[in-house]
Structures are given as C-alpha cells and as structure tokens.
Specification:
This protein is an all-alpha fold. 75% of the residues lie in helices and 0% in strands. Helix 3 (74-83) packs antiparallel against helix 4, helix 4 (87-100) runs antiparallel to helix 5 (104-120) and helix 7 runs antiparallel to helix 8 (157-170). The protein is elongated and about 105 Å long.
C-alpha cells in the first residue's frame, strides 16, 4: 500500500506537471491571456446588458385591463367594464355605439350585448327591455331566448312561456340535425312553466 507521504508526493508532482504545462502553453503566449480576458469581459458585459433592461421594455404596462388587447370591440370593452364593476359605464358605452350604428342587425346585436350584461348583473328589468328592443329590430332565436330568460327571472310565466315556444320555432333545421338535444332545456322549461 501507499503511504501518505508517497500519495502527497504523487499529488504534488501531478500538480507541478499540470502547472508547468499550463504555464508553458498559456502564460508563455501573452496573446492568449488577452483573448481570454476579452472573452470573459464580453460575456460579462452582455450578461449585464441583457439582465439590466426592464422586462417590459417592448410592451408598456397597461393602465387598464382593456389596454392589453390591440383590437377590442365595443362589446368586449363594455363586458370588461361591467366585470370590473362599472355597469353604468358599460351600458353607456353600448348606447354610444348604438347611436353610431345605422344597421338594424348590428343594433340588435348591441342590444343583445346590453341585455346579457344586464342579466348577468341581475338587472332583469333592463335585460327584458334591451331584449325586446333587439327583438323589434331583428327577431331571432337568441333574442327570443333572452326575452324568455329575462321574463322567467321577473316571474312573468306567460311571457316566458310564449318566448320559449318561439325559441323552439326559430331553431333552424340544420341546428336540429347537428344536435338533437338543442331544445331539450327549452322544452323542459315549457313543461315547467305550463304547470
């Protein structure tokens, strides 16, 4: 077995040889030292430059939840306002859009949006009013559904029953072919309200 002194001498010899080889090849040539220092310096500078920039340098922090989207429709803006507690502001925004719009179908869609926001905030009187305005402009399955839901929430069974029947009547055959269960809920509501 090797004694401890012998191991120490082997270890010192290895270090000495390694040091001599390293010194001979690297420290003899001063150009290699300059290149090594330059590379380390460049890597250090690039690291500092990359990590010192703010993380939002190319995308400023939005001032409101609406600003993070580039193309937000008025309905999305109104929905966001209502979600953050500004129900009246959302309705005003949609009223302004309705005033700008000349097409009845587009106005009907905006009234549907007003209806949905009102319904979600439990303003059922407003919801029914907006749904009826949408129905006058462009009757559709969705406007009938909104009137039925709003009437039901206001405990007006007669009106709710009438419009649930219209929902079933206005369901296109293509929708019925694609989904046989499309009117199951509406038929159940008709049975429930007929009692």
């Amino acid at each position: 077995m090797f004694s401890m002194n012998k191991l120490k001498s082997i270890f010192r010899g290895t270090l000495t040889v390694t040091h001599r080889v390293f010194k001979k090849h690297w420290f003899k040539n001063k150009r290699n030292i300059v290149i090594l220092v330059a590379i380390v310096g460049l890597v250090g500078f690039l690291g500092w430059w990359y990590f010192s920039k703010p993380q939002t340098a190319y995308s400023p922090v939005p001032k409101s939840p609406l600003e993070k989207y580039t193309s937000v429709t008025p309905v999305q803006k109104a929905d966001t306002l209502a979600f953050y507690g500004d129900y009246q502001g959302s309705q005003k925004l949609l009223d302004d859009e309705i005033a700008k719009t000349k097409d009845d179908a587009s106005k009907s869609k905006l009234y549907n949006a007003k209806c949905l926001i009102a319904f979600n905030h439990k303003h059922y009187d407003d919801s029914l009013t907006f749904a009826q305005a949408a129905e006058k402009l462009a009757p559709s399955r969705i406007t009938a559904l909104y009137i039925a839901k709003s009437s039901e929430a206001l405990h007006n069974k007669k009106l709710a029953l009438e419009y649930y029947k219209k929902v079933i009547e206005r369901t296109p055959q293509q929708m019925k072919d694609l989904d046989e269960t499309i009117n199951v809920d509406n038929e159940a509501k008709i049975k429930e309200l007929s009692k």
